[in-house]
Write a structure and sequence with these properties.
The complex is a heterodimer of chains A (240) and B (349).
Chain A: E1 2-11, E2 14-24, E3 29-34, H1 40-47, E4 54-60, E5 69-70, H2 76-81, E6 84-87, H3 99-106, H4 113-126, H5 128-132, H6 143-155, E7 161-165, H7 173-188, E8 192-197, H8 200-206, E9 209-214, E10 217-223, H9 224-229, H10 231-237
Parallel strand pairs in A: 3-8, 3-9, 6-7, 7-8
Antiparallel strand pairs in A: 1-2, 1-4, 4-5, 9-10
Chain B: H1 5-22, H2 24-27, H3 30-55, H4 63-78, H5 81-87, H6 104-126, H7 131-151, H8 153-156, H9 171-189, H10 192-202, H11 204-209, H12 214-240, H13 250-263, H14 268-284, E1 292-293, E2 298-299, H15 305-320, H16 333-348
Antiparallel strand pairs in B: 1-2
Helix pairs in contact in B: 1-9, 3-9, 3-12, 3-13, 3-14, 4-6, 4-7, 4-12, 6-12, 13-14
Classes of the chains: A alpha/beta (240), B mainly alpha (349).
């Protein structure tokens, strides 16, 4: 579905990503893990069109068997129309709007009323807590609920590729498990997921395939379960 | 359209208020009517800046420029050709402005449209900037507009300004345009478009990853705001009957900014309250500048005293209620009813 070839990202004089290549097959959950500053977020922000100073190639195939198109140089709103949604780091929900309005804005790029209502129902089924709080202002939600709202809002554009930037950031362990359970459910409903995480254990447990990044390079890759057992990964990312 | 309670109450209030204003001359003096007109014009200006700054978060200090465009375009449209010929003494007025004569409402709309179109030219280069830089750039553009007006003597009569503008802006006319502005902006701000603007204000990155074209929506909001500023300027010119380039300096922008901030950024009813209260306060405080006799001591009139007191009042507002009178809330019928219900309950208890 998504093919990244030799991606470089610069911020000023700093090379945040130095020649990363990865591939995300249709229907998979792929995760990028690594420490702060490893370049994970830079990669998915590039795919979302938020980084301008990039070089390399990003190829996207919305449906299997289609001709691949290049995403280089497209603006963020064009990415959304092509079926790529990003739930950005730090939630970034709109505090002054209600949960329902937040979700509606997520469907900004669409105009099929029935489809939007359908997806709204789907998001509420995934996150029953959002339904309970649908009339509340986004800013009054708890951290976990705001994260759910951010994910739900990204889903409202009916993407085929859902990218999540650190969905577990700042959440209690029980909530992390809940969020990851829902990510798996979203994947089972047919969405391809690209997940950026610092919580390596949780991410590797749900992922079909994982890339481990260090200072802007891929240092290790493999199926999630295998990496969980890898002694090097255990030592560096899973606490021994 | 289904007429629910709130819409009915709004329409009824507008009509009753209109009827009261229609009869205003029977119980208000000339001075009070003058102030009342100024209040409505200031409300238009405050609402238009609130759309740009309060709802979209664009820190624009160029409002005086748009007001000037509106005032000049409208004045050129309604001034009788004969009068124009006499007044342009430095250089004769050029065609087609010399023969231009339109009804007042056309001139007001024309003023708004000109300001709106001009705003596009400013918006495209300038809105790529953020925050303080945007403030500086828009401020500079407002000055450029002023300098253009001073130097385009064959059109604007340069620094002499335009005098004797017909006073078509009566109390009811000002009220009507203020209502028009309020209704249009309320429909815009409390629709999906309004949500998009607030989304851009609160978080540009979130807006762009949701598929919103941030830049285009900013330009749109900026131009709509400028359009209504132009309308306000057109009314202001007709109301004062005299305009000159010096009027449209930074202080005018600052005044409007004050209405908006005091009323609450992102609240239309707040802007109405802010513009009303501050306009009245600025006039009422004039008594401070007159000599006072307190019985035991006589204070001579100190010019500028009202501005001192006024600044203190503003400081208190900003220190005690930083988000303004209304914050981002609106004064709605539901809120008013809820307030009365609470009072009732408290009385029973």
């Amino acid at each position: 579905m998504l093919e990244i070839k030799d991606l470089h990202v610069r911020y000023g004089g700093i090379q945040a990503v130095q020649g990363v290549s990865l591939s995300i097959p249709h229907g998979a959950i792929v995760t990028l893990i690594g420490a702060n500053g490893a370049g994970k977020s830079s990669i998915i922000r590039s795919v979302a069109g938020l980084n301008k100073t990039i070089s390399g190639e990003i190829l996207f195939r919305r449906h299997a068997g289609e001709e691949a198109v290049s995403l280089m140089g497209l603006r963020p709103e064009e990415m959304v129309r092509r079926g790529i949604a990003l739930s950005p780091e730090g939630r970034r929900i709109l505090p002054h709007l209600t949960v329902e309005e937040n979700l509606h804005l997520g469907a900004y790029s669409r105009d099929d009323k029935d489809g939007i209502a359908e997806d709204m129902e789907w998001v509420y089924t995934l996150f029953p807590r959002l339904r309970e709080r649908s009339w509340q202002k986004g800013g009054t939600l708890s951290g976990g609920e705001q994260q759910m709202l951010a994910v739900g809002r990204a889903l409202m554009s009916r993407p085929d590729l859902l990218m999540l930037d650190e969905p577990s950031l700042g959440l209690a362990p029980l909530l992390v498990r809940e969020i990851f359970g829902i990510i798996r459910k979203i994947n089972e409903d047919g969405k391809t997921v690209l997940l950026v995480e610092q919580n390596a254990y949780a991410a590797l447990s749900v992922a079909n395939y994982a890339y481990i990044l260090e200072v802007g390079r891929v240092v290790l890759e493999g199926p999630g379960r295998e990496l969980l057992e890898d002694p090097k990964v255990k030592e560096a990312y899973l606490g021994g | 359209m289904r007429l629910d309670r709130n819409t009915f109450l709004s329409i009824a209030t507008m009509v009753i208020f209109g009827l009261v204003l229609w009869q205003a001359e029977t119980f208000l003096g000339d001075y009070q009517i003058y102030i009342a007109k100024l209040i409505f014009i200031n409300i238009i200006l405050a609402l238009s800046l609130n759309l740009i700054y309060g709802f979209t978060g664009l820190f624009s200090l160029g409002h005086a420029g748009f007001i000037a465009i509106g005032a000049y375009v409208s004045a050129l449209c309604i001034l009788p050709p004969a009068q124009k010929e006499i007044m342009w003494i430095l250089e004769p007025i050029i065609w087609p402005f010399s023969d231009l004569l339109t009804p007042f409402w056309v001139s007001v709309l024309g003023g708004g449209l000109f300001a709106g179109v001009f705003a596009i030219f400013i918006a495209v280069p300038v809105l790529r900037l953020g925050d303080d830089y945007l403030g500086m750039a828009t401020l500079a553009f407002a000055e450029i507009i002023r300098v253009l007006i001073v130097n385009a003597t064959p059109i604007t009569n340069g620094s002499l300004g335009i005098k004797g503008i017909p006073g078509h802006a009566t109390l009811l006319v000002c009220y009507g345009w203020a209502l028009f502005t309020l209704i249009v902006l309320a429909r815009l701000c409390y629709s999906n478009f309004g949500n998009v603007l607030r989304c851009i204000r609160d978080n540009e990155i979130a807006a762009s990853v949701m598929g919103i074209n941030v830049f285009w929506n900013k330009v749109l909001s900026f131009c709509i705001g400028a359009f209504f500023a132009g309308i306000g300027g057109a009314l202001l010119g007709s109301h004062l009957s005299t305009i000159d380039p010096k009027m449209f300096n930074f202080l005018l922008t600052f005044n409007v900014l004050m209405f908006v901030v005091a009323g609450g950024l992102g609240s239309l009813t707040g802007s109405i309250l802010g513009a009303t209260v501050i306009t009245i306060l600025l006039e009422w405080l004039r008594f401070l500048e007159e000599p006072m006799d307190l019985g035991f001591i006589e204070i001579p009139g100190i010019p500028g005293m009202r501005m001192v007191v006024f600044s203190v009042v503003l400081l208190v507002i900003i220190l005690k209620r930083r988000e303004g009178i209304m914050g981002t809330r609106e004064l709605t019928w539901n809120r008013i009813f809820a307030f009365f219900r609470r009072l009732e309950r408290r009385e029973k208890a």
